[in-house]
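Notes, Module 5: Reading structure tokens.

Key idea: the token line is not a picture. It is a compressed description, and you learn to read it the same way you learned to read a sequence, by spotting repeated patterns. We will look at two proteins. The first is printed below with its tokens.
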Amino acid sequence: MSAPDPRQAALDAVLALVVELGEDMQHGLAALGLTPARSHVLWQLRATGPAHQRVLAEALRTSPRNVTGLVDGLQQAGLVSRNAHPTDRRAVVVALTDAGEQLVDGLEAGQQELAGVLFADRPDSEIAVVADVLAAAVDRLRVAVATAPTVRGSA
């Protein structure tokens, strides 16, 4: 029997991690009354600041109509607000409310805690290598999907 391909073993480990993280994220977000899609809106607003819904749709790679529904739910929950654009009377800008900022602060703290749990016994130098390898894999996947969209479905 031949030794397993280390690239395949690495992908298998990443896929297993994705499944576990996905399940953990689903449960954690549900406990906060959020969906992954709504949390992506919150993270995007944290990263960019207030934004037009069209800009959010582009950043999240979804339709403006979908973003409208997501923002509606987040606004009803008091996590975002819709405000008039300062110079364009036709435009609306979406922003995190104080409650939204606090919630994202909590999510960020949870991520830091999870990173501590997952990588507690590993030296920083090893973690840096893993981070570099994964970042390169993400970049390669984005290029592969952009040039051959069927790549995504083959995993």
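Here is the second protein, with the sequence above and the tokens below, as before.
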Amino acid sequence: MPDAPTAALDLVLELTVLLGEDMRRGLGELGLTETKAHLVFAVQHAGPSTQRVLADMLGVTPRTVTTLVDELGAAGVVTRESHPTDRRATLVTLTEDGAALGAGLVAGQRELAGRLFAGLDEDLPAFTRVLGEVVARLRALTEESA
């Protein structure tokens, strides 16, 4: 039987796999990849943004963002608009359909959260605190090894 830290990590890893599978399935039904969904969330959160800013937000290359914007543009999710002060730059904005898609993604996330954590009201603050600490420690370890 694994020790407590190993057992906890085993559960976190299993949770990661299950959440990833569920997310990919749900996004696939919408014709999205994880990266495309992240771009939609980024524009929804930050508002109209340059592709350079989006690349930085997503941690990908500008060329990757260009491809994503091309594909999401062809699907009617985003558009490119002239930057009001920089003639060399364009802003990526959500279309009406893109804004509705983003709102649907947020609603789906809230619904899943409600279903996963229903009845755990007393334990949820402690779970959130501990999980936040684990995430912070993993980020620190990742930054150390980079």
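Summary for the second protein:
- The helical segments are 4-29, 34-46, 51-58, 62-74, 96-117, 124-145.
- The mean pLDDT is 94.
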